[in-house]
From TrEMBL:
Protein name: Restriction endonuclease
Keyword Ligase in annotation: no
GO MF terms, alphabetically ordered: endonuclease activity
InterPro entries per record: McrC, McrC_bac
Alphabetical UniProt keywords: Endonuclease, Hydrolase, Nuclease
Keyword Hydrolase: yes
Pfam family, one: McrBC
GO terms under biological process: DNA restriction-modification system
């Protein structure tokens, strides 16, 4: 996992830039020219710019359910709650109604993040003061305890999609600070680091080809080619990336692991990860291809520090499978060049 920590901060910034188009806004341009000591500084700087942008655009609102006792009938009367609270003694009833409010989960996460960051000694005093100064804009938002489980309940739509980048970065920074401060074992920290960067890596790869090429870019689910239409309990085949051009289709699966190849015993010969190879082979064989369509697969690994790295092309049952590794430590112009060269092997 040493490699993960050694990915240049500038390259993580570029990955974020592709994964989230928001970073192309004028307000963020200064970030691309600054130098950061660590990724925490990068995330904090992004939030220091991004949260004020959200505030200027107006905090999103949503309908939330409110329960209260009142002498005015509004919404629905809750008879059971009225009896339990003995509200009728005071000539009141329990009512339940919807209120259009800023007190929604997205704003609660941002407020909780601001509170956490304003007290953290892992970021500069200047940043702490800046985050503390943003809290008055969230006075109508309830305080919640910051917990990674909060993000599991986040749902986006056309009205709140502008929050996605900032809320994701809130999580990236919180995780980074949380595992720095906790007594979690080094192994667990490495696993969490891998998971976080794996998600960003997948988003970056997809967005890169969407922006930099003229291929048809998508990430569809592949349906199982069953004989009797019975698909109960079959796992979902969700692709990371599918590139198409001139009746050629390349199914790409992005892989970000601490180990790209495996050996049965220490010092033994390294082999491809069988699970990954079976996965991409299954994708190819279940893809519903047109009669003249040529289909291939690619396992696109992030390069590790291991001596042996995937760099192979297989011909299996009439289909090509490319297994390659991308060095995220090199200059970003070389990363772009490598990515384009990898897929051009198939399309040209």
């Amino acid at each position: 996992m040493e490699r993960n920590n050694n990915i240049p901060i500038r390259n993580i910034y570029y990955m974020l830039s592709y994964a989230y188009q928001t970073l192309n806004l004028t307000e963020y341009k200064q970030i691309g020219t600054e130098k950061f000591e660590n990724v925490k500084e990068l995330y904090a700087k992004i939030l220091s710019i991004g949260i004020p942008i959200l505030i200027r655009g107006g905090l999103s609102k949503g309908y939330i359910s409110v329960e209260e006792t009142s002498n005015v009938i509004k919404g629905k009367i809750d008879i059971n709650s009225t009896i339990k609270k003995n509200a009728l003694v005071n000539k009141k009833i329990a009512v339940v109604y919807d209120e259009f409010s800023e007190n929604i989960l997205l704003n609660q996460i941002i407020k909780a993040t601001l509170v956490y960051l304003s007290r953290s000694n892992k970021i500069s005093q200047k940043m702490r003061r800046l985050f503390y100064g943003l809290l008055p804009y969230f006075t109508e938002v309830s305080d919640v305890e910051l917990d990674l489980k909060l993000w599991n309940n986040v749902r986006y739509n056309r009205q709140n999609i502008r929050y996605q980048f900032i809320v994701d970065v809130c999580r990236y920074l919180y995780e980074q600070l949380l595992f720095d401060e906790s007594s979690t074992s080094q192994m667990m920290k490495e696993v969490q680091d891998e998971q976080r960067l794996s998600s960003l890596y997948e988003k970056f790869i997809y967005a890169f080809f969407k922006r930099e090429t003229k291929y048809k870019v998508s990430h569809p689910q592949i349906q199982w080619s069953v004989d009797d239409e019975f698909t109960d309990a079959l796992p979902i085949m969700q692709t990371d990336l599918v590139l198409q051009k001139d009746k050629k289709t390349l199914i790409v699966d992005a892989k970000f692991y601490s180990e790209n190849m495996v050996a049965r015993f220490e010092g033994g010969m390294t082999k491809q990860n069988s699970g990954n190879l079976y996965q991409i082979f299954t994708y190819i064989n279940n893809w519903k291809a047109d009669p003249e369509e040529k289909v291939a697969g690619m396992l696109l690994y992030a390069k590790t520090t291991a001596l042996n790295q995937p760099n192979h092309i297989y011909q299996i049952k009439g289909n090509q499978i490319f297994v390659v590794s991308l060095d995220l430590q090199q200059d970003f112009s070389n990363i772009k060049e490598n990515l384009l060269a990898y897929v051009n092997q198939f399309f040209t």
